[in-house]
Amino acid sequence: MQNRTGTSLTLNFRLLLCIPIMALTGCSGMQSALNPAGAQAGRISGLWWLFFFVLTSVYVLVLIFTIAVFFRRHRSSLPLAPELPHPPRERRAQTIVGSAVGVTVIILFVFLFAEFATGHSLQEQPEPGALQIKVTGRQWWWEVQYQDPTPSRMVTTANEIHVPVGRSVQFQLQSPDVIHSFWAPNFHGKKDLIPGHPTTLTFKATTPGTFRGQCAEYCGFQHAHMRFVIVAESTNDFQTWLEQQRQPGREPGDETEKKGKEVFMSASCVMCHTIQGTPARATVGPDLTHLGSRPFLGAGTIPNNLGHLGGWVLDPQSIKPGVHMPQNNLSPGDLRALIAYLESLK
Amino acid sequence: MTRTSHLQIRDFKGDIPRADAEQLERVWSRPKGLLGWLVTTNHKDIGKRYIVTAFIFFLCGGLLAALMRLQLMKPENSFLGPDLYNQFFTVHGTTMMFLFAVPIMEGMGIYLVPLMLGTRNVPFPRMNTFGYYIYLLGGILLFVSLFLNVGPDAGWFAYVPLSGPHYSPGKRVDIWSQMITLTEIAALVGAVEIITAVFKHRAVGMSLNRIPMFVWAQVVTSFMVIFAMPSIMLASGVLAMDRLAHVNTHFFNPAEGGDALLYQHLFWFFGHPEVYIIFIPATGFVSTIVETFSRRKMFGYLGLVLSLVSTAFIGFGLWVHHMFATPVAELGQGFFTGASMLIAIPSGIQIFCWLTTLLTGKPQLKTPLLWVLGFIALFVLGGLTGIMLASVSLDLQVHDTFFVVAHFHYVLIGGAVFPLFGAFYYWFPKWTGRMLSEGLGKLNFWLFFIGFNLTFFPMHILGLHGMTRRIYTYVVESGWGNLNLLATIGAGVMALSVIVFLTNVFVSRKSGVIAGANPWGAPTLEWGTASPPPPYGFLYLPTVQSRDPLWSDKDSPVIVGLSNTKREVLNTTILDAMPEHRYELAIDSIWPFALALAAGGSFIGAVFNAWAIPIGAALSFLVLSLWFWRGNEPKFLLEGIQHTPSSPSHPSKRVLEETPA
Q1: I want to staple A140 with a disulfide (CB 3.0 to 4.6 A). Which of A215, A222, B288, B598 is the partner?
Q2: Could you tell me if A167 and A232 are in contact, meaning their C-beta atoms sit under 8 angstroms apart?
Q3: Helix A39-71 to helix B344-360 angle, to the nearest 10 degrees?
Q4: Angstrom distance (rounded) from CA A285 to CA B230
Q5: What is the mean pLDDT of residues B161-166?
């Protein structure tokens, strides 16, 4: 009941207020708490609009009384003689103030119970068939691992999360370095990733689309560039994507790509990165098995295309200062081959 | 301390005995020159110094904010890199909280509370001076480090493990943690002064129910300081020990069995009360200004006092709402949500009482009152978004976004800086003897009000649309560019307004209208002495018969019989403020300054080497021995002072008609 009301309220007010605001300000809504694409964010946004309208009314009332002071002002450059309070008027004022306090208490109780109802609904245990995704926050990128009882069927990727619409997803959140916070506002509120305190977050996507999220807890030098893409899609599309991600890294198709793979395996790349199906098995940096299919590089710093990838490989420090990836001195030929190989890893 | 044998309360008519004023002037004045400046223990000197120093830090912190706004003006801006931006937001937050807001409120208290209580100085004058110097050292340490490009960069909250030795190598965080310790020592010192003054040095007749609202606000805040500050000093001290080479404790290191969340609890157990430590003194300004300019007694005095006290209690029970995104069980969250919403009730009562006082009085819209009306408009908005943050569900969405940045700037600038500016306009005549210009004051207000809203209102929308805090840049596709540009323009308007204020101060200090003792026709005791007040405050200590002595009391008697050859004040009883005994205060001394150097040097030295602590402790012991060694004071500090009991001084007529010597 609460849920249904919340959602319909949300829809109405999105049309009324939110869309003009987004249009006016240029906000895209791809990373917005007021544009829910999941059940949990929907409930929160319903609660938001309840708070918003009640509190706005309260605010307008207080403003009216404040502005009234302007109209009651006495113009005199010298201080007026202080006035003794009139007892009957004081008693009237006491009644009014007392009632205002009473109304405040009632409003606060309404809010408190609305919050408890919403908060409790967010606490629900995930259904048994919930998709399990382990997200590890690192300075400054996200490692995303789709869990599976068979270890070889697990999928590891970075800064990109696909979720099926209509199925609960439980995220197991952890951090090996500093505190991060996982936030995809279109789906749910945030949850901190705290070293030594593994946490979970569960949501269910309801609307397909491509959305953004980002780290919400200051985590050091490049906190600004710790972003991710979250794609909600139909179960079929999701299964296709997951199956494709399970494949080992694509074998080089032509001579250039073959040379690129040799460069990768002989340069320092192999010290930090994994490409499934090759000897590169290091886990310091992101898994690159399907790098070519990802939309962004450097955790949402730049779009993923040939030019940007070249610049990134040569000198990541100039693009994302402080990133834990060193500069690489490669000859133009080696670089071109390496980029061709990496982009072929769809 | 001397028995009260000579003490009398008399009501005399006649001329003011000039000899008495001159003698008091000799006893209470500080020596001339730089040395006099260093040794002074007068609360008016120290209070003014706190206010000016803290305001300079406000300008520095504001400058950093303006630079950050320039960086965020457009997406992918390269004006500041991540290194500078991270240092700037850390130092901005740290400065505004620790070097500006808390000390300036305390400075206002140190200057005004003894005058409002009708006494001559704070009860422990040397300790008060020590507090100022240790605060100054902390502030200098922070800004010197920033200029040397080793400013702290782990946020004003310095969460571990990011601030731990592994993820923040170098000295940056150490400087932050020692600066915290230094400034919090100063805060504790000020709190002890104010609590003691309010409970033991009130004017005869000022029973608890006649204490001015401003003084209530100060004493409630001081109790909060005493409970809150030790928590942050523990957190920052232990963090320093975790980081210090050859000490290397592991309190907060998860890899060695320490706990990262423990730090957050310690930090926010201080951090949330801190907000009220800043806000409650501001309510004192508001109540004072509202009462004076409504030309009527405050409506709901008892309600206002109880609101302050209950805010102080509840304020310690809601720190976890800063931690809703960490693992906290549902029932526990419910308690903290309840407490966070509960605090809206005393805040609401205060707003209702102020509005009632204004609307049932004869409001005169002078500049101080204008700032108070601005305060109501902005603080209420910030308070209402605060109710949203009390809800766990909403908080999970807007926590650590620009929505929260907007919220607490409405609460802290709207709730504390607006009343503070009002207080500047209100008490400037008392401090300097001259009025600030009303015209420039109104320009100052409107520019600040408009600039503030342009800067911070758009941040609500930005936060809801996903803009997280503490990011030095954002991508074009986020669509956050326009509102950020608007916010930056607003920051420019605010900067302009501050320039108007500074101009007003510098011009009016020299050529403002002469104020006289009580230009606003205000009811409280500080207006019962000259502007600026003489070093001894009141020629004869006043007595009061009501809550607003300058309005209601007719022919109040004054206290005679206090020594005029010693720095003597009167102790009164806690509840009814009846005279207890005479109490001699310490004279000026260089040792508070020396102790600040020894103790401060030891904390600063500990950034580099653990041996600084034992060495500093030994030096401090030496200095304290000299401090307490009576009879070693140099001659020039003893002018006019006799250590022998003296005969009673001459009577005077009513204190409220007193003129300066």
Answers
A1: A222
A2: no
A3: 20
A4: 42
A5: 95
A282 and A262, same structural domain?
yes
- Cβ(B260)–Cβ(B319) below 8 Å: no
Residue B249 tokens read as: 């404790």
| ipTM summary value | 0.93
A82 within some domain = no
Q: Where are the alpha helices (DSSP H) in A26-86?
A: 39-71
- Is the CB of residue B320 less than 8 Å away from at least one CB of chain A? no
Give the tokens for residue A7: 């959602």
Q: Mark whether A118 and A135 lie in a shared domain.
A: no
Nearby residues of A153 by Cβ (< 8 Å), 6 or more positions away: A246
Q: Dump pLDDT digits (tens) for A240-273.
A: 999 999 999 999 989 999 999 999 999 999 999 9
A39 and A140 part of one domain: no
- C-beta separation of A201 from A170 below 8 A: yes
Q: Which of A75, A119, A216 sits opposite B400 (nearest CB)?
A: A216
The enclosing H or E element of B82 equals: helix B82-94
pLDDT of residue A102: 97
Residues A19, A110 within the same domain? yes
Quote the domain boundaries for residue A264.
255-343
The percentage of chain B sitting over the pLDDT mark of 90, rounded to a whole number, equals: 85
Q: B566 and B578 in contact (C-beta within 8 Å)?
A: no
**CA torsion B212→B215→B220→B222, rounded to 10°?**
-170
Residue entry with tokens 């509102």: B483
Burial class (CB in 10 A: 0-12, 13-18, 19+), A1: exposed
Q: Is A196 left (phi over 0), alpha (psi -120 to 50) or beta?
A: left
Residues A11 and A59 in one domain: yes
- Pick B373's closest partner by Cβ from A41, A69, A85: A69
- Same domain (yes/no): A180, A197: yes
Q: How far is CA B523 from CA B296, B300, B352, B590, in A?
A: 10, 17, 22, 37
Q: Please tell me whether residues A202 and A262 are part of one structural domain.
A: no
How many whole angstroms separate alpha carbon B300 and alpha carbon B292? 15
Choose the weakest-confidence range: B9-13, B50-54, B520-524, B650-654. B650-654
Task: Check which CATH number belongs to the domain holding A290 and give it.
Answer: 2.60.40.420
pLDDT of residue A10: 47
Q: Percent of chain B beyond pLDDT 70?
A: 94
Instruction: Determine whether the interchain pair A177/B353 forms a contact, defined as Cβ–Cβ distance below 8 Å.
Output: no
Contact yes or no for A83/B361 (Cβ under 8 A): yes
The C-alpha atoms of residue B511 and residue B529 are separated, in whole angstroms, by 22
Type and span of the H or E element at B304: helix B301-314
- Inter-chain contact B348–A104, Cβ cutoff 8 Å? yes
Pair B422, B372: CB distance under 8 Å: yes
Entry pTM: 0.94
The mean of the pLDDT values for chain B is 92
Contact: A83, B296; criterion CB under 8 Å:
yes
| Domain total in chain A | 3
Cβ–Cβ < 8 Å for A301, A320: yes
Residue B438, SS3?
helix
* Of residues B159, B364, B396, nearest to A189 (C-beta): B396
Residue at token pair 């923040």: B168
Read off the tokens for B642: 């006799």
In the predicted model, residues of chain A with pLDDT beneath 70 are 1-27, 124, 126
Q: Is residue A83 part of a domain?
A: no
- The alpha carbon of residue A158 and the mean position of all alpha carbons in its chain are separated, in whole angstroms, by 14
What was the pLDDT predicted at B657?
38
Q: Which residue, B388, B371, B389, B380, is CA-closest to B350?
A: B380
pLDDT digits (tens, 9 = 90+) for B78-116: 999 999 999 999 999 999 999 999 999 999 999 999 999
Q: Which of B494, B280, B271 is nearest to B379 (CA)?
A: B280
- Which candidate in A21, A67, A192 is best for mutational testing of the B interface (most B CBs within 10 A)? A192
